[in-house]
Amino acid sequence: MPNVKEIVTKMLERGMSADEVKSNLKQLGFANADQILAEVQGGGKNKGSAPIGFSVTSIDESGEEKELNMLASQGAGEAPAEVTTGSYDSVKIAKQLDDAIGLMKSIEKLNKQILKANQDILNKLGK
Question: How confident is the model at residue 91 (pLDDT cuts 50, 70, 90)?
Answer without folding.
Answer: confident
